[in-house]
Amino acid sequence: QVLLALCCFASGQLRTALQLLYRARYLLLIVCGEDHPQMALLDGSIGLVLHAALEPELALKFLSNALCLTSRHHGLLSLRTAHCHNLLARVYESKGEFHSALQHEKEAYTIFRNQ
Prior knowledge:
There is one protein chain. The protein has six helices and no strands. The protein is mostly helical. The protein is globular. Pfam families: TPR_12. One of its GO terms (cellular component) is cytoplasm. GO terms for molecular function: mRNA binding.
């Protein structure tokens, strides 16, 4: 379902991509629970699609959850955590919240520099 959702997203079918990603998230939630590393990947993907669909508030919710899960499972200094910070910065920047965007970009830069 996730790969099909990515194909739908690439072809511009945002609604279908979101439906597939939400379904995959629901199934993972039932099988593995909220605290699973794969949930971070799904939440990040949902956040990206929501950002493309011009839903920044929902995108921030999912991307923030992805950041929490990623830092918990991969560590605060992992490249995946830096990527989550970068995605959050992009959404904050598109909303015009430049202070929050700059904070997340600084976090991402610090992690990238230390790798």
